[in-house]
From TrEMBL:
Lineage top rank: taxon: Bacteria
Gene: truA
Binding residues annotated for substrate, in chain numbering: 110
Species, as recorded: Lacrimispora xylanolytica
Record family assignment: Belongs to the tRNA pseudouridine synthase TruA family.
Enzyme nomenclature, EC number: 5.4.99.12
GO molecular function, one term: tRNA pseudouridine(38-40) synthase activity
Keywords from the UniProt entry: Isomerase, tRNA processing
Protein name per UniProt: tRNA pseudouridine synthase A
Active site: 52
SUPFAM superfamilies (UniProt xref): Pseudouridine synthase (SSF55120)
Subunit structure: Homodimer.
CDD domains tied to this protein: PseudoU_synth_EcTruA
Length: 341
């Protein structure tokens, strides 16, 4: 048995998204069926990003297990001969048996394209959102700057996804205009359900003059989907790439006006330990931050996470359940609370 990783590109126009559904054909369904026929065994793929109906991809990632002896790097060529013209495997390779595309640290890059002119160009209609109202790109850039960093993006998530943790990190958000084509390019640690499309819809409202750029900060603070702009059309969105972390970051810092913390991961590889210092955090966000960052350290390999709250003792309660974690005091570490995996 071997595990094969694939880089998958597709035109999402004729598909009801990535994940198998009852209401129409999906990318996952086509891959499962075609791989099963090719390798003569039941194949089920696991995708990294479950793109929505009509969304495109240049670099989605998927894995599957097989007992077939065909070399992993040759599977892409054999599979592409059987796939429809709007789906292609750009690369295939063997990976470790426990590799999972959704359980790895990575940077996801999306692009949202807007055709901003009086009359739509038919040849671009399937891959861009058409907007006839003139957009002020400079104001859109100013608004986009408020989104960069670690924030609670609950305002930019549709109701279907709001049960999960809504804090995400956006590393960069760039907006370029070439002729009549505006491209919003956004890189992040991960994205909530419909998050990029809601960001695009909100930035277009800024470009139209409906919101001033500074209003985006108010939308973030509201933590309410009704505060943000509309969800932009799916056809303008493309998942460009998923770039996986090759080496664990020694330090992660998260900072905004609600919280500031440092997670030291230097000892994870050698001693299975991580050290979290919470410099400040408002009361309403404290437990969520504690659970979220401790879980990140554990997922990265820590078996013990030491935590210090610099705003004072008493907020971390010994014996209390914080998600999967319970804290205790360890001898010789008076300032630090420790939780074990």
């Amino acid at each position: 048995m071997k595990r094969v990783k694939m880089i998958v590109a597709y035109d999402g126009t004729n598909y009801c998204g990535w994940q198998i559904q009852n209401n129409g054909l999906t990318i996952e369904e086509v891959l499962n069926k075609t791989l099963t026929e090719l390798l003569k065994e039941k194949i089920t793929v696991t995708g990294a990003s479950r793109t929505d109906s009509g969304v495109h991809a240049e670099g989605n990632v998927a894995v599957f297990d097989t007992e077939n002896r065909m070399p992993a790097d040759k599977i892409c060529f054999a599979l592409n001969q059987r796939l429809p013209d709007d789906i292609r495997i750009l690369q295939s390779e063997e990976v470790a048996p426990d590799y999972h595309p959704r359980k790895q640290n990575c940077v996801k890059t999306y692009e949202y394209k807007i055709m901003n002119r009086k009359i739509e160009i038919p040849t671009l209609r399937l891959y861009t959102h058409f907007c006839y109202y003139p957009l002020d790109v400079d104001k859109m850039r100013e608004a986009g700057a408020y989104l960069v960093g670690e924030h609670d993006f609950k305002s930019f998530c549709t109701a279907r996804g709001q049960a999960e943790e809504t804090v995400r990190t956006i590393y960069s958000l760039d907006i370029e205009k070439t002729g009549d084509l505006i491209t919003i390019r956004i890189k992040g640690s991960g994205f909530l359900y419909n998050m990029v499309r809601i960001i695009a819809g909100t930035l277009m409202k800024v470009g139209m003059g409906v919101y001033p750029p500074s209003h985006v900060e108010e939308i973030i603070d509201a933590r309410d989907r009704n505060a943000a702009g509309p969800k932009a059309a799916a056809k303008g969105l493309t998942l460009v790439s998923l770039d996986y972390e090759k080496e664990l970051e020694k330090e992660i810092r998260g900072e905004n006006k609600e919280w500031s913390y440092t997670l030291s991961q230097e000892e994870i590889v050698s001693q299975k330990k991580a050290w979290l210092t919470i410099h400040r955090c408002r009361k309403e966000d404290f437990d969520r931050l504690l659970i979220r960052v401790v879980h990140q350290a554990v997922r990265n390999g820590a078996e013990k996470v030491y935590v210090k709250d610099e705003e004072g003792p008493g907020r971390i309660l010994l014996g209390k359940s914080y998600g999967f974690y319970i804290f205790r005091q360890e001898d010789g570490e008076e300032e630090w609370m420790v939780t074990e995996k």
